[in-house]
Specification:
This protein is of the alpha+beta class and 556 residues long. 30% of the residues lie in helices and 20% in strands.
Length: 556
């Protein structure tokens, strides 16, 4: 696409978003309007930006925007609290046999789907079987784990596991329950036998959930608009948002315009330091900074030259200047200690921080089989176009690597293009800059999604590690029912992965978002101010039903 077309599209997006925002009741009275009369009550809405518009099919999506959407459109058997515990949700209680192979859940009665149907055990069974059959998104959490799902009666469901799986209860925050009848009524042609496409085409723009919000409209590459489900089983508190919107843009200009006009409540986390500084100067706007289980990785493809050589990878890990990134580019973040963010249970605190050491970088490079042929093996480094500050990280690595004779070619790539690229080993670049978050509240989530062979071909593993010993160790750890024993195994795995140097773990992210402090109450931001923990389960910081919106406080 040429530059002129990009400019036209960008301008169009700004205008479209502004029109949508005005139509949804944001901002003050129009110029020239009669303000002497009592103003109409504005809709209580939370609008946020993300890098992409969510994929709202729970059997397919798994990125940040999609995880936010799932938390609001669908219900799960259990709910992740900010303190790391789980609360009963659709399941009022449960029990497991001593070996952890059979789990029985007793469902809440009277829960309604958005179309009015009652939620039953059959819907839970359908949702699990669909997840296992499609095998995309969060399906990896249950694939090879759940042997059978069965409805014992209308409100009792039983899962039989293939093998013990310690975090099973925690992973159920990713089993989003769909209305089986509604999905079955909207099957299209597809590869799943009698199930056709399993409703995938319909679920691109529709939901079949029972969550606090339901889809009002999804416009591809533009926005998701959800509206409150008034009959939600858990009820509503006063001042809760009546609607939400997720806008698929990280454009600094667009974001600043919307924040200024009070037509955006929360920004994405990808705004540059300079943009956040400018946003924080707007009256009523604050910047929330929280460690939420996310870290920045420079993934190294361990199966293509020259990053297939462990000494070459170690040279890159030693030559990179982590202090510059943490002190200047992403202030407030913390240098990583290995692959697992420090706030996740099972993190190994004994792993040293990543640190620049030029002498060790030169020493490792000399041991590499590519040491005498560096000009023949440039490193292709991809950064994600929707995250502008990643370019600075890429340019820094390019400069640092040049000090020891390694040539780095920096490539800017849109997120969806990157997701497509890394589906094959040969097309995956030597190095990829990607933020990664946990899917459930344990180190096992990061270890499995990032380094087990099951996750190769996804955006979460650009390393293509495919190490049988690591795979076996991860399987043994997550198969350990005893919590303390499982945590110890996680720590040992991290040490083994660090030895292989498949990644430059740059920092644990202090996730920063500007928001309208004057007129919205954001629970995660208030917990951060009080020095209390915030959930590390991606997406659940934005469970909008717990927010508050006060339109009368919007500055005029």
């Amino acid at each position: 696409m040429n530059s002129s077309k990009k400019i036209v599209m960008a301008i169009g997006l700004v205008l479209l978003v502004l029109m949508i925002a005005v139509g949804c009741g944001g901002g003050g009275a129009p110029k020239g309007s009669d303000t002497s009369q009592e103003p109409e009550m504005q809709e209580r809405i939370i609008r946020s930006t993300e890098a992409t518009v969510p994929v709202i099919d729970p059997g397919v999506g798994s990125d940040y925007a999609s995880s936010i959407a799932f938390a609001n459109l669908y219900d799960t058997l259990v709910f992740p609290n900010h303190d790391g515990t789980l609360s009963p949700w659709l399941a009022t209680h449960w029990e497991a046999d001593d070996g952890g192979l059979v789990w029985t859940f007793y469902l809440r009665e009277g829960v309604k789907f958005h179309n009015g149907d009652e939620l039953t055990a059959e819907d839970v069974v359908f949702s699990m079987n669909r997840m296992l059959t499609i095998g995309e998104g969060y399906g990896y959490l249950f694939s090879g784990v759940v042997k059978k799902a069965e409805a014992l009666d209308t409100h009792t469901v039983r899962f039989t596991l293939d093998k013990p799986f310690g975090p099973f209860l925690s992973t159920l925050v990713r089993l989003y329950i769909l209305n089986a009848s509604e999905v079955m009524a909207n099957l299209g042609d597809g590869p799943y036998g009698d199930m056709g496409d399993y409703g995938k085409n319909w679920l691109i723009t529709n939901d079949a959930g029972s969550g606090p919000y339901m889809v009002k409209e999804l416009k591809m590459q533009e926005y998701l608009h959800g509206t409150a489900f008034k009959d939600y089983w858990a009820g509503w508190e006063a001042d809760a948002p009546e609607a939400f919107m997720i806008l698929g843009t990280t454009s600094g200009q667009t974001v600043r315009t919307l924040i200024n006009r009070r037509e955006l409540e929360i920004t994405d986390q990808w705004q540059t330091k300079e943009a956040l500084d400018a946003l924080e100067k707007i009256p009523g706007v604050a910047v929330n900074s929280v460690f939420s289980g996310t870290n920045l990785n420079i993934m190294l493809n361990t199966k293509v030259p020259p990053t297939d050589d462990v000494h070459f990878r170690r040279a890159l890990s030693y030559v990179f200047d982590y202090d510059v990134v943490v002190d200047q580019l992403f202030p407030g973040s913390a240098k990583s200690r290995g692959p697992v963010p420090a706030n996740l249970p099972g993190h190994n605190p004994d792993i040293p921080e990543q640190a620049r050491n030029l002498a060790k970088a030169q020493e490792e490079l000399a041991k590499s089989k590519y040491a005498d042929r560096l000009n023949d093996y440039p490193v292709e480094l991809v950064w994600i176009a929707e995250v502008p500050d990643e370019e600075k990280v890429a340019m820094l690595l390019q400069s640092n690597a040049g000090e020891i004779g390694i040539k780095v070619d920096v490539v800017r790539m849109p997120w969806l293009s990157f997701v497509d690229l890394v589906t094959t080993m040969e097309n995956t670049p030597n190095a990829s800059i990607v933020f990664v978050s946990s899917h459930y509240n344990e180190a096992g989530s990061i270890l499995e999604s990032r380094y087990h062979s099951r996750s190769t071909g996804t955006w979460e593993q650009g390393e293509w590690l495919m190490d049988p010993e690591i795979d076996k160790a991860i399987d043994e750890a997550i198969g350990t029912v005893d919590f303390n024993e499982r945590m110890q195994k996680y720590m040992g795995i991290q040490e083994k992965i660090v030895e292989l140097a498949p990644t430059l773990w740059v920092f644990d992210q202090a996730e920063k978002r500007a928001y309208q402090e004057d007129y919205i109450y954001w629970p995660a931001a208030e917990l951060t101010k009080a020095g209390k923990p915030v959930t590390s389960v991606m997406g659940y910081q934005f469970y909008y039903r717990d927010f508050k919106v006060y339109p009368d406080r919007i500055p005029k």
